[in-house]
Every structure is written in structure tokens, then in C-alpha cells.
Amino acid sequence: MLLRDRVIVISGVGPGLGRGLALQCARAGADVVLAARTRERLDAVAEEVAGLGRRAVTVPADITDDDACRELARIAVETCGRVDGLVNNAFAVPPLTDLGTVDLDAVRAGFETNVLGALRLTRLLTPALVEHGGSVVMINSAVLRHSRRTFGAYKMAKSALLAMAQSLATELGPRGVRVNTVAPGYIWADNLKWYFGHLARERGVPARQIYDETAAALDLRRLPEPDEIADAVVFLLSPMARAITGQCLDVNGGEYHH
């Protein structure tokens, strides 16, 4: 119960990592404020949180919209009375095209969600976080650790998110707020399962073969699941990490060493 009776705001709640974050925070004793653009996804996860005996407040919101974010922050504070943690998990896939030919407007759009949206929410919730010595966790990506072709815009956005988190740690640390980053690699959830199935059909091999070939490049020989990423986030939100700020914790099964 590392987060007993705390309130955690989580953006980008969906069926994969967002759901895992909500449920692991609830299992750790927290009430959660869940934000996403899709009401149906929010309601489904909220029902699971309630089944664990914790409260879930749902707020449909687009974090690229100033008014929507202000309303999210207002509801979180007024409904729950406090905010102890913020997990910036909302994500928009940047264009997967070489930087030499990528559409710059599409790159800007990716930054709006992946970087500026996270900054917007963090700024709005800073007063509440300061009041309770809170913690912010940015969900990043293992794209930080490689420079493969077509991933340039993705890496640009996530590198900016990391730099922002480090700068916020310096700015907010004197006010008692910690800011850290978790960088997952592969996450064995629905989207990746679908993709591996697609690759398997293209090659005419079992999906398990795609999994095994991918996992062979990881030290642990298996792909992390959403709850395992979420557990690292719970740790950084909790008092167990009270002296940790400005750091990036890679959770990738040993695919990259950092």
C-alpha cells in the first residue's frame, strides 16, 4: 500500500498501459482521476478500479486543449480534495517517416500531445502537488536509446519530454515536488499482440515465434507487461522514492542498458 489514501491523476487512460497504471495505483491504495478522450475506455477502467475498493473519477479531456485541462485540474482538486501525483501517459504517435521527408506539421502535432500537453497538465496541477509534496512521472520510451530510421520525429518528441522532466525537477524540487521519467521498451499488451499477429500472418509463422525472436534480444528473454511498467511508476510516486528526482528509469527487460 505504497500510495495509501493518495490521489493520482493519470492522463491517456486506455486498455493497455493506462489501464495498468490505474489498477496498480489502486492496488497500492490510491484513488485515481482518469483522463482520456474516450468516455467508454474511462468508464471501463473506472469500474475495475471500483472493484478494487478505490475511487475513480473520470474526466473526458483532450490534453492539447487549455480549457479541457483546466477543467480536469479543477475537478481533480475539488472532487478529491487533494492531488499527490500526476502520471503524464497521454501519447500521440508521431509520423514514422525519415526526418528528411517528414511533414513538419505532423511533427508539431506530435509535440502538442507528447510534450506540451504534459507540461500543460503539470503546470496546472503544480499548486496542488506543492501542497502535499507530490510527484510527477512522465511516461517516455526506449526510443531514447536508439536512432533507427523513421523514428526521428518520435525520438525528438520523447527527448524533449525527458529534457522537460529534468528541468521541471530542478524548478519544482525546492518546492517539494519530484519529477521523474519511466522509459518502457516493448509492452506486451493488445496493440503489440495485434502487431505480432500481423507479422506472423505475413510470414506464415506462429505468433509465438515472433514473440520469441523479439524476446531473444532482451536479457530477461520476455517482454514486460503493463503492470510491470506501472509498478515502476508506483515506486516513483511513492515515499520509497522520496530522494529520487530528475531521473529516468528504463523498464525494458534489459533490451538496452543505461
Automatic annotation (TrEMBL):
The record's annotation in InterPro entries points to: NAD(P)-bd_dom_sf, SDR_fam
Pfam families associated with the record: adh_short_C2
State the superkingdom: Bacteria
Instruction: Please list the GO terms describing molecular function.
Output: oxidoreductase activity
UniProt entry keywords in alphabetical sequence:
Oxidoreductase
Under PANTHER family, the record lists: EG:BACR7A4.14 PROTEIN-RELATED, ZGC:101858
Q: What is this protein called?
A: NAD(P)-dependent dehydrogenase (Short-subunit alcohol dehydrogenase family)
Q: Provide the species name.
A: Thermomonospora cellulosilytica
